[in-house]
Here is the input.
Amino acid sequence: MTQPATAAPKDAPTSAAKSAEENGSSRLTGLRWDVRTLSLLGVLAVLVAVGGITAPDEFLATSNLQLVLTQASVIGVVTVGMTFVITSGGIDLSVGAMVALASVWATTVATQDFGFAGILFTAVVVGVGCGLVNGLLIAYGRMVPFIATLAMLASARGLALQITDGSTQVVTVQSVLDLGGRDSYVLGIPPLVLIFAAVTVIGWLLLNRTTFGRRTVAVGGNAEAARLAGIDVRRQRLYLYLLSGLCCGIAAFMLIVLAGSGQNTNGNLYELDAIAAAIIGGTLLSGGRGTITGSVLGVLIFTTITNIFALNNLETAVQQIAKGAIIVAAVLVQRRSPHGDT
Amino acid sequence: MARTPATSRRALLFGTAAVSAGALLTACTSNETKDQEPAADNAPVADDKPGKAVTIGFAGPQADHGWLNAINDNAKSRAKKYSDVTLEITEGSNDTAAQIGQIQTLINKKVDVLVILPADGKALTQVGLQAMRAGIPVINLDRVFASPQAYRCWIGGDNYGMGLNAGHYIGEQLKGKKNAKVVELAGLDNLELTQQRTKGFDDALKNYPNIRKVARQAADFTVESGQAKMAQLLQAQSNFDALWNHDDDQGVGALRAIDQAGRDDFLMVGGAGAKSAMDAIKAGNSVLKATVLYPPTMAASAIDLARALGQSKGVGGLAEFEIPSSLTLYSAVVTKDNVDQYLPTGFI
Here is the structure.
């Protein structure tokens, strides 16, 4: 335990330039990056093997692949946003609450009157709005991200509860419901999975191929150095929390499609799932390094574990114990792999 | 004529007896006007007529769930019905410390009777005891205190009975079917009530040797978890004959998953009694054929009990002079045949 603890602070003060180089020009460091990703793929392969052996008929079916990807899609989109925030050295504890608020706001009777577009628009705008508040408080109000987003967590959940009054708001707009049905699959791919894939690809390009991405990494590596290098750190931070809010808005819409309803308990503990997936994926909690591919693999590992447990009808208690053990194992496997530790 | 203290005590006794008899008599006369009252009813019972004014303090958990919301609504509307009842209702809280504080405030306000639905029964036992010691009788609603000294009367649902009735209903529906398979979608697994529901369900299924429970997964009472766990169950079990889902709120998600998977080869029984579930049962166009009640109307009954207690009366339909010390409600099975009767009690 002492080794990683000392390793992280040592890594953090290294110049922003170094971090930026490591991630920004991933073509040069592609090999290192691939090893890390390969170890995650290895974990996933082991899980698939376990699933295939313990429940061959159910696990290896096409319908199960569709199921796992669909279940991963909502939290996956949230995790992409979270990866950006963590890469910049911040944290967003309010993602679950933002999903809850956006999903209930978008499913009120008044919103549903506006149909498909009304629901989609409201979900996204509420998410972005919450992200804007987070971003302003953190970037210009100089609040610590942990505290600002914790405050958002509390108040967004509270507002969600006030809107619903504790009841479940069932969606009656047929076109929204249809989007989650089998008939709307495109070439066998559920629309929610397509949205997840699109968000992932855009997120990957944004982080690895644009100035925006390089700035994010630089701010996370060393904010002071980034500022001296001419980056508007505050504006960058504002954009990042906006991005996280946007992802939560999209995720809220996806959850509405999936569950056919809005409820104030939606998105429960998403913050922990998203942070865990990003960290397992290889994003540094102290900032300066982030990987969208890793985060997505982290999400897929979690979802596959849940799926295998459910298919084998294991008890909740056993599931939780094993989940914890697998998180530790996944991180250890990464550590041990060559170049896995920076 | 000077009277000794002894005789005056006797006089007091007779006096009290006379007054009681008088009260009894008035009660009897009032019964004559209402012919639906039981004939054998000669105890003073609380009825709709205004009596002594009673202030009832009500403390419940945060209404973040349809059922709990219905609990608050039932309590409020029942109290409004009686002109002699004043309801002091606190802001619901899931935090044990906060709820203790709220109840202590109600004790300090010297309400006549307390109705408490604790966020956690065991954790709030002490404050229940405190109220009882301060001379304020406590009606313990649903989640039971650790000590019977902490309440005057407990009223609540029957989790074991819920499972039992769900199991019996499914058993009867699948009668004669060989090697029938049943699946269970449980609620939050770290709650004792979930374990009790499952126990009741398993015990009932033991009566039907042709039925086997093939899978059980636990969701956490939310729509989202209901959808996720049900989708997994459907993937794991390519065919089964019946499903029992512990909770209608998570059932919204479960039905969604069933719909998305395009499955309709089994019958589903819900739990708790949400309006959406009853609507679906009435419409009869989904797999949901029945739901087992965990009636939120218990909060209205708790107000009735509190009022009777405050007015030192018994309850209608029972011969005793006092309200009972414990009341376990029946978990009725709502099907298409009787859904109209229960629909008004369904919660949103």
In short: The first strand of chain A starts at residue 169 and ends at 170. Confidence is low (pLDDT under 50) at residues 1-30, 338-342 of chain A. Chain A has one domain: 32-336. Strands of chain A lie at 169-170, 261-262.
